[in-house]
Amino acid sequence: MLLFTLLLAAGCASPPSHRQHSEMLPAGQSSLGRPIFAQSATHAGLSGFYLLPGNSAAFRARAELVRNAKSSIDLQYYIVQDGLSTRALLDELIKAADRGVRVRMLLDDTTSDGLDDVLAALASHPNIQVRLFNPLHLGRATGVTRGLGRLMNLSQQHRRMHNKLWLADDSAAIVGGRNIGDEYFDAEPNLNFTDIDLLGMGPVARELGDSFDQYWNSALSRPIGEVYGAARNDALAGLRRDLERSLAEASAKRKKLYDRLMSYRQHPQLDNWRQQLIWAPSKVLWDAPSKILSQGAPDPHLLLTTQLAPELLAVNQELILVSAYFVPRETGLLYLTGAADTGVQVSLLTNSLEATDVPAVHGGYAPYRKALLEHGVKLFELRRQPGEDNAFHYPLHGSSDSSLHSKAMVFDRRKVFLGSFNFDPRSVLWNTEVGVLVDSPELAQATRQLALQGMSPALSYQVELQGEQLTWATEDNGRLHRLTREPGGWWRRLNAWVSQAIGLERLL
């Protein structure tokens, strides 16, 4: 009772909001924005796109955008993990703010677990603002009280902002599946994620800026100072010293990794990428932030999926889905099997049980496999990829094992949708998402080739039906063979089974 009273008091003590409304800064005349919009003008106002499937290139792109920004940087992320890559990016952001660049950071509140001090220190910089989306007010002091506070408000606390967006000078943006952390930039020694980001330049960046502003100015976004309190007077200076010390230490003790990450300083690529852009019409799709306030299932008018539905329904030849977490439920099952029944070639690449970082999600996916296969849907499950020895072009490798984290859809080899959206109930109903739909056969083909490479026998298991029995066809050492038992250890099997047995599907 005492603990409950303390938690309740902490929740009631949260200060009233004094948020200031702000919008993206027009920067078409900045040294970053000017050449981009000049290029766009020669392409009849289209936007330019460049795929970032490689983890190193994805890190470099973010760092170079910060280095080149002159007026504003807007960041929106679900997860930020401490690590060398994160500290390097924070160092660049602080230096940009020192130059007079306005930095706005909008983070889902799950990010702040263990990072409140760092975020408050950043927000004490006169040019940096930090807001938390759907923050917890009950018991933020410790991990235990945070957990209890979230359990006491589970109906809202399981609804999160899953968006990923990096925007510089209203002219260039990165959208896709990567969060911020070493495991997204091939800097984690144990497990790294395979992902796809999309670098967009021109009008698409302004559209993405509109989506950011809607979230930033939402009543659900609260300044870090209101949630956590003011930082100490010396907090920012302490953070600067800590970043300088840790980066210097990494340059000596982790020299190979440090040199790879920091290569953007001596060999920038942004101008080269700008000359290789694919120019095409596009549309930014995003969930309304108020989606998470819905009682039960949200109003369809608030949903990204409502905007995406016409593209899904218009497919008549081929649909390729890449989704790290795939739980179709009955609605998705009926759509996919119905499309396959009409002659559409439907192929899915997702994680195998042995590769997924969330085995419970596999428990939500597994029961649908037989029905999908019976209607001709092709299922490919990415194997857990080893590190150094993998020589495939698709960046499924690095210094450690890797797991699929990509999210992409290719429609009839003509259009592609890339963003933070997984084909599962959590993305559809509970979390908010953002992505870009591009009408470009060239970009669609490049994304399709990445997916097909991931579906190759050396990288994935193709799940097939032999009578009533599921089998997993794959290749080892150049020889094809077939498994009759699903690959994955007993602990992963147990997690998947429990998830299925207790009916977690709707929350996955």
TrEMBL record:
<feature type="domain" description="PLD phosphodiesterase">
    <location>
        <begin position="400"/>
        <end position="427"/>
    </location>
</feature>
<dbReference type="Pfam" id="PF13091">
    <property type="entry name" value="PLDc_2"/>
</dbReference>
<dbReference type="InterPro" id="IPR025202">
    <property type="entry name" value="PLD-like_dom"/>
</dbReference>
<feature type="domain" description="PLD phosphodiesterase">
    <location>
        <begin position="157"/>
        <end position="184"/>
    </location>
</feature>
<dbReference type="InterPro" id="IPR001736">
    <property type="entry name" value="PLipase_D/transphosphatidylase"/>
</dbReference>
<protein>
    <submittedName>
        <fullName>Phospholipase D family protein</fullName>
    </submittedName>
</protein>
